[in-house]
User: Which sequence fits this backbone?
């Protein structure tokens, strides 16, 4: 393991920012710390950097306990949320600053800075000041500045938060590509699940100071382990009386999470579903929203509100229309864990899920994973 | 949202120790404040507390001291009120209108800050005396300014005006004209808009400016002692003058006792300003 | 669909047209007789107030100072007393500005860069000299270092041990201390809001890269605060040069510990027509300095805003 956090605790007054956090990160991986605001993800990042000190627990980088090592000695590159570029220094001086502090020879500094400027595509902007750059260019400078002294671990705090939505997408793939090119172990903080899924190999989901789940994007999505993850990831609705849905029985749960892709709605005469028509129930269309590449359909099934996505290629439907509805599966949750429940009636019939794509919903768009 | 800002704040707070120099800078700061400000002021306090209650009361309630407090407070109050009126007009003119010489006018507002108080004092005294340019003119109507309470008040207006203008100006600059436009669109006249919409927005700034000018006025010395004439009979002595007088007579008990009361008064005024400012920021934050 | 869009378009255009109409109406209202009248009235009141209350006194200093001719003017500002007063004033001002600049930087760094208990109290304590009458400032140093002062025996012991004769109250050090007292918060008060607005991100980044305190200040912080610092120094200088009340309590020797304002006071109170004119002549030196300060202040303020 390259980076290890063992039993980390951190309190601010009564507020637990880190509650027995244990994390292991392998060399060369690109990890996202994902969670809502105030979930403690930034605190974890800042503790690794040495910008905060844990109340208890160990932070180990490359086999060395770094708790008492000064931030500057930890071999870390840090990209701040708003980049914290030195406003009174040019792009060149910003990147060179860390090397100057290390008393690197002038000629070597020039070589390294030019190399990074070349790598990050900042050529021609060396003598500009930060306020003369676009958001994307600033991010590149921040990235180059963090990399200049050859750190072995790169930490990025909400690296895309300061960039407007249009450029963000482009920069995500750029950053991913760059990190692979440089081959540096990297951890970034984000509250945006789409970003985490798109950029990271591994996602650490945090909530209320605890690590909820660690895993690759697909397993986080498909096998949420806790109620929080099942609700936080994807477009999820919590329903209380899930047992009223056909094919599900009441268990010792407090409710269930249903995602749009778990719900199938079809017209009565649809021959594709003829074999399961008696396992379906009636749902009334209450609302239809256009989502660009699909429709988002709200249904009322026995007083339970469900949401599904409908391809634009299929036959049109209308508000008030009665459709047949089946729910393939849902995540039943108790206080601590999430459990996948398959529709028992469909399983008995050997009926397979016909929806091949799974989506993650974010910012009014769907991302296929 | 509230919770979110709170946690963000916490992050920032705790992160600050990364920056070096905490112990050194705080140590120097506290040491300098203590040696230069607190210990000398504490000496006054300690000395005045060594007086018996009876002595203290006798000093404070002696006629000329009471009159001095009355004069200082009353004249400062009137001057601060007048400054509030002209302060609003000046700030309004400087923010809302364009006219030649505006920048010079804006710069001149600070003159009372830059001009030594003693210079202001002798000039005003001369100007408003019955031989001075303005004084001789007013004398024709039987109005005496120098060596009266009027003169005292004029000096305090002079010294206080920048406080009020500089308190109101930034608020007026930031004041979104959308509020006024909203009022117009609802059919309010300009006057109604000013009285019902704009003025309430300016009130906290006016109170702050008023408080600052008032506080400065109560403690003022250099600019008032020439024009006031310092007559015990005509009650034109101000508190600072009385303290100085006691000092010159080496009457330290009286000087410190009066100073203590004055410190308490300025503390109350400061407290008032702080409360106004805290209320104001709470109100704007809630919007 | 396209129908809806075109519908939306017309609605939009309609609303824009209405909005424009209203704006025009508003403009008309602003340009109406009432508006123009208010404008002229406000500008006139402002001009009259400023001219009468501020400009006339300024000019009257100059006129009064030249009443007895240029020769007398030059003679009055070159007397031994005046030269000595200029020396003391400059000395006190230079020391006060240096001390308070140092203090301002250190204190604003401590207050804006770190969080600690009692920060609000410390900020309030620093601002005390703003709200305390300068006479009380003078008094407090007398009560500390004067005949009644508790620090006097300590000072005497030191003097005896070292064979020196350092006096504070009614001596030059007292004048310097009083000047420092009244100008104490000037620099820090200008720096604190600027440092708060700049934030600590850049400094944290630099610290993380291994920069020490001095490097951070010199390379990162200083460029942000240089204009505010200059602004504070200018205000501090102006106030130090003109301080009267505090110094008046602590300084009794004309030609020895008197500063320019005290010399002006002495000349004015001596009562003869000649000495009053001389007092205005000496005042004119300070008036010229304060006008220069005003101009500098405005230039720097403009830079700070930019």
Assistant:
């Amino acid at each position: 393991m390259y980076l290890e956090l063992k039993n980390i605790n951190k309190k601010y007054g009564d507020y637990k920012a880190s509650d027995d956090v244990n994390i292991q990160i392998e060399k060369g991986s690109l990890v996202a710390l994902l969670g809502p605001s105030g979930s403690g993800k930034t605190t974890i990042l800042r503790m690794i950097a040495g910008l905060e000190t844990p109340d208890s627990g160990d932070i180990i980088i490359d086999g060395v306990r770094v708790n008492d090592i000064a931030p500057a000695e930890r071999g870390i590159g840090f990209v701040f949320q708003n980049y914290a570029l030195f406003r009174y220094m040019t792009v060149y001086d910003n990147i060179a600053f860390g090397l100057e502090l290390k008393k690197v020879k002038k000629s070597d500094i020039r070589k390294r800075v030019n190399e990074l400027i070349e790598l990050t595509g900042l050529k021609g902007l060396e003598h500009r000041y930060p306020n003369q750059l676009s958001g994307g260019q600033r991010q590149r400078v921040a990235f180059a500045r963090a990399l200049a002294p050859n750190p072995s671990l790169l930490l990025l705090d909400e690296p895309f938060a300061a960039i407007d939505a249009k450029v963000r997408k482009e920069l995500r793939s750029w950053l991913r590509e760059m990190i692979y090119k440089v081959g540096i172990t990297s951890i970034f903080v984000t509250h945006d699940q789409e970003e985490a899924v798109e950029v990271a190999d591994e996602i650490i989901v945090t909530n209320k100071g605890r690590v909820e789940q660690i895993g690759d994007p697909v397993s986080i999505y498909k096998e949420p382990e806790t109620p929080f993850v099942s609700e936080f990831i994807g477009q999820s609705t919590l329903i209380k009386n899930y047992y009223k849905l056909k094919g599900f029985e009441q268990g010792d749960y407090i409710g269930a999470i249903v995602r749009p892709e778990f719900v199938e709605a079809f017209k009565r005469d649809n021959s594709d579903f003829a074999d399961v028509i008696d396992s379906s129930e009636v749902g009334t269309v209450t609302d239809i929203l256009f989502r660009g590449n699909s429709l988002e359909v709200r249904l009322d099934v026995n007083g339970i509100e469900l949401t599904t996505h409908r391809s634009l290629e299929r036959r049109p439907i209308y508000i008030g229309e009665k459709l047949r509805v089946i729910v393939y599966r849902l995540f039943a949750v108790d206080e601590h864990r999430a459990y996948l429940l398959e529709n028992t009636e469909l399983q008995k019939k050997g009926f397979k899920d016909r929806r091949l794509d799974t989506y993650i919903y974010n910012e009014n768009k769907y991302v296929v994973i | 949202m509230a919770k979110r800002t709170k946690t963000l704040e916490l992050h920032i707070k705790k992160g600050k120790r990364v920056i070096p120099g905490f112990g050194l800078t705080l140590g120097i700061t506290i040491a300098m404040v203590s040696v230069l400000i607190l210990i000398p002021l504490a000496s006054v306090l300690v000395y005045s507390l060594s007086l018996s209650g009876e002595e203290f009361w006798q000093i404070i309630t002696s006629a000329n001291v009471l009159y001095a407090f009355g004069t200082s407070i009353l004249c400062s109050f009137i001057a601060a009120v007048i400054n509030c009126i002209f302060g609003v007009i000046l700030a309004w003119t400087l923010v809302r209108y364009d006219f030649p010489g505006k920048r010079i006018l804006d710069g001149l507002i600070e003159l009372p800050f830059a001009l030594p108080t003693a210079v202001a004092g002798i000039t005003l005294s001369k100007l408003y005396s019955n031989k001075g340019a303005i004084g001789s003119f007013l004398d024709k109507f039987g109005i005496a300014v120098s060596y009266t309470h009027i003169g005292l008040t004029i000096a305090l207006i002079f010294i206080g005006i920048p406080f009020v203008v500089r308190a109101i100006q930034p608020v007026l600059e930031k004041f979104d004209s959308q509020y006024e436009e909203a009022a117009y669109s609802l059919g309010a006249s300009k006057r109604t808009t000013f009285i019902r919409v704009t003025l309430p927005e300016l009130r906290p700034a006016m109170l702050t400016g008023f408080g600052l000018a008032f506080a400065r006025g109560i403690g003022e010395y250099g600019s008032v002692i020439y024009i006031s004439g310092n007559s015990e009979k005509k009650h034109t002595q101000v508190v600072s003058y009385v303290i100085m007088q006691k000092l010159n007579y080496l009457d330290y008990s009286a000087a410190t006792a009066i100073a203590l009361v004055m410190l308490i008064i300025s503390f109350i005024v400061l407290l008032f300003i702080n409360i106004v400012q805290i209320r104001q920021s709470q109100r704007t934050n809630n919007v | 669909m396209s129908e809806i869009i075109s519908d939306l378009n017309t609605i939009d255009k309609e609303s824009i047209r209405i909005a424009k109409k209203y704006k025009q109406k508003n403009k008309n209202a602003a340009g109406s007789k009432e508006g123009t009248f208010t404008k002229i009235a406000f500008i006139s009141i402002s001009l009259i107030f400023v001219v009468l209350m501020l400009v006339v006194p300024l000019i009257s200093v100059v006129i009064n100072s030249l009443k007895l001719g240029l020769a007398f003017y030059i003679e009055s500002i070159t007397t031994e007393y005046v030269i000595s007063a200029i020396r003391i004033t400059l000395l006190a001002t230079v020391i006060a500005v240096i001390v308070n600049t140092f203090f301002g930087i250190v204190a604003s760094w401590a207050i804006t860069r770190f969080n600690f208990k009692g920060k609000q109290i410390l900020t309030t304590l620093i601002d005390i000299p703003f709200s305390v009458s300068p006479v009380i400032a003078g008094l407090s140093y007398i009560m500390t270092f004067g005949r009644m002062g508790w620090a006097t025996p300590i000072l005497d012991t030191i003097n005896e041990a070292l064979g020196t004769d350092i006096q504070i109250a009614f001596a030059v050090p007292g004048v310097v201390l009083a000047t420092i007292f009244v100008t104490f918060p000037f620099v820090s008060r200008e720096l604190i809001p600027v440092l708060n607005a700049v934030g600590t991100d850049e400094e944290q980044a630099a610290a993380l890269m291994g920069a020490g305190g001095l490097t951070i200040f010199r390379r990162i912080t200083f460029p942000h605060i240089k204009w505010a610092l200059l602004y504070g120094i200018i205000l501090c200088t102006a106030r130090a040069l003109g301080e009267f009340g505090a110094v008046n309590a602590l300084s009794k020797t004309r030609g020895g510990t008197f500063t320019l304002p005290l010399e002006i006071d002495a000349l004015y109170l001596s009562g003869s027509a000649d000495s009053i004119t001389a007092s205005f002549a000496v005042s004119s030196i300070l008036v010229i300095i304060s006008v220069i300060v005003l101009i500098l202040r405005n230039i720097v303020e403009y830079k700070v805003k930019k």
